[in-house]
Design a protein that fits this description.
This protein has 14 helices and 2 strands. Helix 2 crosses helix 7 and helix 9 packs across helix 14. It is globular, with a radius of gyration of 22 Å. It is mainly α and about 375 residues long. The chain has 2 domains: about 180 residues, Orthogonal Bundle (Cytochrome Bc1 Complex, Chain D, domain 2), CATH 1.10.760.10; about 160 residues, Cytochrome Bc1 Complex, Chain D, domain 2 (Orthogonal Bundle), CATH 1.10.760. Strands 1-2 form a two-stranded antiparallel sheet. It starts with 5 loop residues before the first helix and ends in an 18-residue tail after the last helix.
Length: about 375
């Protein structure tokens, strides 16, 4: 893991605090200084050995992230599906690509994706760099015929040649294109929420309702079984029943691993900025936080591959282990029973209040450039 480039974050957080977009500093020099926002773990920050973050690279990545010319018909940019207006998501049930084409999955936020973990709902990309390549050639997203065509198109824009040469010391190529985009994405963070300040000892940072919601989150509602740690995600894959009542069922992680237990499993998303990123779930099928809480409280859809975390309220640990042993033999023939949590109206309101306390700062610098290279 490379040292955290704190020059970049110091400058970006200053911009965030002022809510004023300004040009990034020039230069490729690595530096060290202030930490990530309160609540984020610097030890989790990952830079590939071949892609250290620099201010010049971040600025180049910002241009590419917002540049619609990276798509086949100059209509879609990375920022089209990851907009600051929607918590770095897009506010749509499923995203709209070139010519209005739509896939079957919701655009997840890219906030706090700087750790060395898999990307996409099904985890098919091992890094941010690998993730950045996917939408470029997806016929449902940016629609370029292949990665060579992306390189050729960017290289045809004269204004990009000098910055690429200055940042990477070579001609434009696809790997450097996605390195720049990934470097920019690593600066898009959220921390110093009311929850973070409460955890740090400020007992007045959260209201009484939010504190009751936190107690539910870690207790009766069982949210923290999967939404755990500093980023409120275990970075694992779970079948939570969403979409199991539709045909065809999205296979989720199974399509990547081929393991039956991964059928219908999707990555646990961060809950940071969750109040800004509706609609919810991998298919965007749940529109509000209230409906999400209702689902987990009273409406989880049973299926043979339901996550053990959702089965445990109905069964003892021994019963759960025994059931899952039987399920591995019988596959789809065994449905997992679900006991409703039966949260009260007041408990649901408190839980939603807590979720609103997870909005923070560190991403407000994200702004479309005033001009692009030509």
């Amino acid at each position: 893991m490379m040292p955290l480039n704190r020059e970049v974050f110091a400058m970006l957080f200053a911009l965030s605090a002022l809510w004023t977009p300004r040009p990034l500093l020039a230069g490729n020099e690595a530096a060290s200084a202030p930490p990530l926002p309160l609540g984020l773990e610097a030890a989790a920050y990952f830079e590939p050995a071949d892609n250290p973050v620099t201010t010049a690279k971040v600025e180049l990545g910002r241009l590419l992230f917002f540049d619609r010319r990276l798509s086949a018909n100059d209509s879609i940019a990375c920022a089209s599906c990851h907009s600051p207006a929607h918590g770095l998501s897009d506010g749509l049930k499923v995203s709209s690509g070139i010519q209005g084409r739509r896939g079957g999955r919701n655009a997840p936020t890219i906030i706090n994706r700087f750790s060395n973990s898999s990307q996409f709902w099904d985890g098919r990309a091992a890094s941010l760099e690998a993730q950045a390549k996917g939408p470029l050639t997806s016929p449902l997203e940016m629609g370029m015929p292949d990665l060579a065509a992306v390189t050729k198109k960017v290289a045809s824009i004269g204004g990009y040649r000098k910055p690429f040469r200055e940042v990477f010391g070579r001609d434009i190529n696809i790997d450097d294109i996605v390195r720049a985009i990934a470097s920019y994405e690593r600066t898009i963070v959220s921390g110093n929420s009311r929850w973070d300040r409460f955890n740090a000892g400020d007992r007045e940072a959260m209201t009484e309702a939010e504190q009751r919601g936190l107690a539910l989150f870690t207790g009766k509602a069982r949210c923290s079984q999967c939404h755990s740690g500093w980023n409120l995600t275990d970075e694992k894959f779970h079948n939570i029943g969403v979409g199991w009542d539709k045909q065809p069922v999205d296979e989720g992680r199974f399509a990547i691993t081929g393991r039956a237990r991964d059928t219908g499993a999707f990555k646990t998303p961060t809950l940071r900025e969750i109040a800004r990123t509706a609609p919810y779930m991998h298919d965007g099928s749940i529109g509000t936080l209230g409906e999400v809480v209702d689902y987990y409280s009273d409406g989880v859809i049973s299926n043979p591959f339901l996550a053990v975390e959702l089965a445990r309220p109905a069964l003892s640990l021994e019963e759960t282990i025994r059931l899952y042993g039987e399920r591995s033999k019988l596959g789809r023939e065994v449905a997992v029973p679900v006991k409703e949590l039966n949260l009260t109206k007041g408990e649901k309101a408190d839980l939603i209040a807590f979720l609103h306390a997870l909005g923070g700062e560190g991403w407000q610098h994200v702004r479309e450039p005033r001009a692009f290279p030509d």
